[in-house]
C-alpha cells in the first residue's frame, strides 16, 4: 500500500517536471531552448514509463524505454543540425 | 524477501523523480540557453538513471527477472544525453544565441571571429585568382 503511494507520488513529481519543461518549450526565446526542453521531456517520459511498469508489475513496457530513448536522441541531433546549418541531410559537400 | 526489493525500488525511484523535478526547476529558472542545458542534461540524466536502476533492482529482487532491455536502455540514455546536450549547445553557439548578461567570459568568441576572418580572406583570394 505504501509502495503504491510512493510510486504514484513519484509519477506526480515527474508530471510536474514535464509541465515545467513544457513551460520552457512554449516560452523559450531561442529554438535551442525549445529543443533542450523537449529532450528533457523525453527523458522524463522514459523515467515515468519505468515507474509505470513497476506500478503495473509488468515487463511489457521495457521496449518502449529503448524506443523513446533512441527517438528522442535522433530528434535532438536532427534539430541541432537544422539549427546549425539550415538543412538536416546534406546532399553534397 | 520481496519487501526489501520494494523498499530499494521505491527509494531509488523517488530519488530519481526528485532529481528530475530539480532539473526541471533549473530549466525554468536559469537565465541562459547554455546554463539551462547544463541543468537539463546532467541532473535529468542522473534522475532517469536512478529511476531505471530502481526498476531493474525491483524486478531483480522480487521476480528474479534480469532485464537486458532495461540495461540497454540505461546504457543508451547514459551515453546519448551528454552527446545531445553538447551538440545542441554547439548549434546554439554557432547560431549566435546570446549569452546571459551576467556571464563572466566567453572564450570561444575570438576563436570563431578569427575563423570567420580566415574564411573571408580565402574567399577574397579565390576571387582575385579567378580575376587573374
Walk me through the structure.
- The complex is a heterodimer of chains A (93) and B (132).
- Chain A is mostly helical and 93 residues long.
- Chain A has one domain.
- In chain A, 82% of the residues lie in helices and 0% in strands.
- Chain A is built from three helices and no strands.
- In chain A, helix 1 runs antiparallel to helix 2 (31-56) and helix 2 runs antiparallel to helix 3.
- Chain A is elongated and about 60 Å long.
- The termini of chain A are far apart.
- Chain B has one domain (2-101).
- Helix content of chain B is 83%, strand content 0%.
- Chain B contains four helices and no strands.
- Chain B has helices at 2-29, 33-62, 68-94, 108-131.
- The model of chain B has no long low-confidence stretch (mean pLDDT 87).
- At the A-B interface, helix 1, helix 2 and helix 3 of A face helix 1, helix 2 and helix 3 of B.
List the helices and strands and how they pair.
The complex is a heterodimer of chains A (93) and B (132).
Chain A: H1 2-27, H2 31-56, H3 62-85
Helix pairs in contact in A: 1-2, 2-3
Chain B: H1 2-29, H2 33-62, H3 68-94, H4 108-131
Helix pairs in contact in B: 1-2, 2-3
Task: Provide the β-strand percentage band of chain A.
Answer: under 5%
Percent range for β-strand residues of chain B: under 5%
Note the total helix count of chain A.
Answer: 3
Distance between the termini of chain A: 61 Å
- Terminal Cα separation of chain B, in Å? 85 Å
**Integer count of domains of chain B:** 1
Q: Total number of helical segments of chain B? A: 4
User: Biggest sheet of chain B, in brief?
Assistant: none
What Rg of chain A do the Cα atoms give? 17 Å
User: Average pLDDT across residues of chain A?
Assistant: 89
Instruction: Indicate the mean pLDDT of chain B.
Output: 87
Specify the structural class of chain A: mainly alpha
Helix proportion of residues of chain B, in percent?
over 70%
| Spans of at least 5 consecutive residues with low confidence of chain A | none
- Envelope shape of chain B: elongated
Amino acid at each position: 500500500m505504501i509502495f503504491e503511494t510512493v510510486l504514484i507520488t513519484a509519477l506526480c513529481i515527474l508530471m510536474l517536471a514535464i509541465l515545467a519543461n513544457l513551460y520552457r518549450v512554449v516560452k523559450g526565446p531561442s529554438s535551442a531552448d525549445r529543443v533542450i526542453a523537449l529532450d528533457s521531456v523525453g527523458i522524463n517520459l522514459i523515467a515515468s514509463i519505468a515507474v509505470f511498469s513497476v506500478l503495473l508489475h509488468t515487463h511489457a513496457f521495457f521496449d518502449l524505454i529503448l524506443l523513446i530513448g533512441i527517438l528522442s536522441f535522433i530528434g535532438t541531433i536532427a534539430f541541432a543540425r537544422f539549427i546549425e546549418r539550415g538543412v538536416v541531410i546534406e546532399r553534397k559537400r | 524477501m520481496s519487501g526489501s526489493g520494494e523498499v530499494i525500488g521505491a527509494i531509488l525511484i523517488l530519488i530519481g523523480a526528485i532529481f528530475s523535478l530539480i532539473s526541471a526547476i533549473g530549466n525554468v529558472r536559469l537565465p541562459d540557453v547554455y546554463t539551462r542545458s547544463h541543468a537539463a542534461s546532467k541532473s535529468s540524466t542522473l534522475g532517469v538513471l536512478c529511476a531505471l536502476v530502481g526498476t531493474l533492482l525491483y524486478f531483480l529482487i522480487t521476480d528474479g527477472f534480469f532485464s537486458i532491455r532495461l540495461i540497454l536502455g540505461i546504457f543508451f540514455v547514459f551515453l546519448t544525453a551528454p552527446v545531445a546536450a553538447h551538440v545542441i549547445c554547439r548549434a546554439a553557439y554557432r547560431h549566435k544565441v546570446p549569452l546571459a548578461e551576467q556571464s563572466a567570459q566567453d572564450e570561444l568568441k575570438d576563436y570563431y571571429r578569427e575563423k570567420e576572418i580566415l574564411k573571408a580572406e580565402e574567399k577574397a583570394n579565390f576571387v582575385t585568382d579567378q580575376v587573374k
